[in-house]
Specification:
The structure is a homodimer of 248-residue chains. With 248 residues, chain A is α+β, with helices and mostly antiparallel strands. Helix content of chain A is 21%, strand content 31%. In chain A, strands 1, 2, 3, 4, 5, 6, 7, 8, 9 and 10 form a 10-stranded mixed β-sheet that branches. At the A-B interface, strand 4 of A face strand 4 of B.
Chain lengths: 248, 248
């Protein structure tokens, strides 16, 4: 028996998200079915991040246990032969039997992409949030700086969450503009339900001048979802990657 | 009566190409139907470039004549309200009644995008050609340089073409690598059927070492489609834009 870790990229457009649900096909489900069929075992992967419907990933992480003799590093090739085009395993390796992708300390990095121009671009419509209004990048960065550090992010969490501990640490937020694309890159030790999308929606408000950067401080203190900005659309969000302190 | 010029962006994935055909929905057809319904006139646009199935555009050009009182520059907004998400008019303006998008002198720019890494990226699968093998960018550029200028491009044209004059002028070809993406940018006064895709397929062969850059000279001289490299897949190609000498 060995534990195998997969790093998985996917286009979230056609899925109801990472986690298996009744109302639609989940990425997790496709991976479970493909692995189970391939190995003749009943495989249920443990995923690191439960991305929402429409959210993309360059490197979500999942582990599973198997008796298979396939070398751990060959699983990426074997799986990619069988997976649909919109899910591609980027790497596979063996990890300790006790490694758990949600309980082990990690740094998760997300990127929120905004297309800021006069008209939408068709080829970007599923991978960015289109915005006509000019964004002030400096104000967005100033607003973001208030969020960096260890805070109670209750205001930046959807009320649907079952989580009780809403304290998280954000290591960095960088807002950058290149041509017509604005990217918000957020790294932290963990994120609440919809947290990066609510942060992005709030930073957009700072960028358009609807709020002042320093208002973010008051939002944090309110500990109330209604105090923060709107939840930005899922399609702009990509889980870039997850780094574990004891990586394989 | 006025002649209106549209600059049109589209995601070519779900279309059989620009030109109306029996076997599938064409971009041109969608625009004709949308304009005809909107104006209550029977509109048939004249397009500048007949892009293939799966090829994308940032700025293809089309013109039509109308008696409508809608100001020419408002057509972009009016059309975008009615067009599907994967076709977006980027601008509209009035042009001279004699302006013809294929007969007037122009510079067309295409970009061919190659994703050069270990595994494909799902979100790029419809907008780039995935290639595992390392590409030597200098050799690709050296090969490209033989194509710049006025030549008979018969070797770089699909045999299906009905065109007799196969002489064209390429103003520039630039091959650039940024992270894991290689872009081939080609500008010229006109292109034969599949020409940019055959150029791209040939430059890829130079990049992987299957041919030497100087072989391109012999390919040109052969005036035979079999002498040049393969036709690279449509999804990697985007018509970036068309500049007219007397633009509106």
């Amino acid at each position: 028996m060995k534990r195998v870790m997969l790093t998985i990229a996917y286009d979230g457009t056609n899925y109801c998200g990472w986690q298996t649900q009744k109302n639609g096909l989940a990425v997790e489900e496709v991976i479970n079915n493909t692995l189970s069929e391939m190995l003749g075992e009943d495989i249920c992967v443990i995923g690191a991040s439960r991305t929402d419907a429409g959210v993309h990933a360059m490197g979500n992480v999942a582990v599973f246990d198997t008796d298979s003799r396939i070398p751990a590093d060959k699983f990426s090739y074997a799986l990619n032969q069988r997976l649909p085009d919109d899910i591609v395993v980027q790497s596979s390796c063996q990890v300790d039997a006790g490694f758990h992708p949600r309980h082990c300390n990690s740094t998760k990095t997300y990127e929120y992409k905004i297309l800021n121009r006069r008209f939408p671009l068709p080829t970007e419509r599923l991978y960015s949030h289109f915005l006509y209004y000019d964004l002030n990048i400096k104000k967005m960065q100033d607003a973001a700086d208030y969020l960096v550090g260890t805070h109670d992010f209750k205001s930046f969490c959807s009320v649907n969450t079952q989580v009780k501990d809403t304290i998280r640490t954000i290591f960095s937020i960088n807002v950058e503009k290149s041509d017509e694309t604005v990217k918000i890159r957020v790294s932290g030790n963990g994120f609440l339900y919809n947290m990066v999308r609510i942060i992005s929606g709030t930073l957009i408000q700072a960028g358009t001048g609807q709020i002042n950067p320093e208002d973010v401080k008051i939002m944090l203190e309110a500990k109330d979802r209604n105090a923060a900005g709107p939840t930005a659309p899922a399609r702009g969000l990509t889980l870039v990657g997850i780094k574990y302190q004891n990586n394989c």
